[in-house]
Structure prediction request, 364 residues.
Amino acid sequence: MRGFAAAVGRMGVVRDAKWLARSAVLAPVWTAQLATGAKSFMDNPLIGSPRLNAWGLHARRVQLADRLAQSRRRRLAHLISAANRAAFDRDGFVVKEGFLSPAQFAAVLAEVQAHRAVGRETIQGNAVTRRMPLDPAALAQMPGVRALLRQPDWRGLIRYAGSYDAAPVEYIQTILTHAGSGPNDPQCDLHSDTFHSSVKAWLFLTDVPADEGPFVYVPGSHRLTPARLAWEHGRSVGMAQEANRLTRRGSFRVSAGELEAMGLPAPRVFAVPANTLVVADTYGFHARGPSVRPSRRVEIWAYGRRNPFLPWTGLDVWGIEALGQRRAPLVWRVNDLVARLGGPGRQWHPRAGVSPFDADGMVF
Prediction:
């Protein structure tokens, strides 16, 4: 028995030694990540430290990121109209029905309907998301879509909402609800994407009924009020008891009772017709509304998130069009390589010859 206990003790010593060696190597990395958009309480023990967060680490990162975002937006205010700026500053989103002229929209829709290429699909719960990058090869066949991405209103709204004069990643995106046998779609839970301002934009190419997975947003929830800051602080301190894995990853889920305690209104449901543009700061609480039946939503979708602690608005290498349009395929290829080398399995699976309007998702 004593021999067994001694063996177990030696194993514990070896384990502790490995942990200490790993920590010594990674400590500079973990520390440097505090000055970036790193958000996972699971992957970085400093970000996830109950003691440091009780002392205000998470709250201070949130406050500094917010101050810098507001400063950058003031310098980007000229990119959008006063009316759009007032709407965004109040609500955290801008919605524009009939964004394109009827002729422009018809051209964009026809180009997307005719497009077949290699796309990528992922499944979350019972929902499949398909993305097809708007890279140079795709845009060469879609002049109407290319013109949309260069349109001043599209560019200006995304840059102001994201607080950077930086190019977003742009795709054709398809959402298929009830497409798998998994649990409920986790995107249907109200959440904030991360601890700082970031932007997503949707130009809907299909009508979006209220009961078929619409976008949902809590108006005004992008503002860092004292109540929101206190909530952020409390969640960070209590992360060790948090059951939701996505919250532990830094995408905080929020309940209806917590919204009320923060003085926030009920979520707004964006049941909108095709040719509606929505641009939103996804620090605000948002979700995909539930769908009562299998449904398909197709959109031109853009996403932007940069290091929240940069004081400048520009200096974006991806803003070089020839490089920026290749970013999505490049990221996917890197992820494929990492997976082949034994890293984490890839989340986005390639599918050749798919159309954005195909109603069936891959079998995962």
Remarks:
- The domain at 36-354 is CATH 2.60.120.620 (Jelly Rolls).
- The two ends are 48 Å apart (CA to CA).
- The first helix runs from residue 2 to 33.
- The longest strand covers residues 295-304.
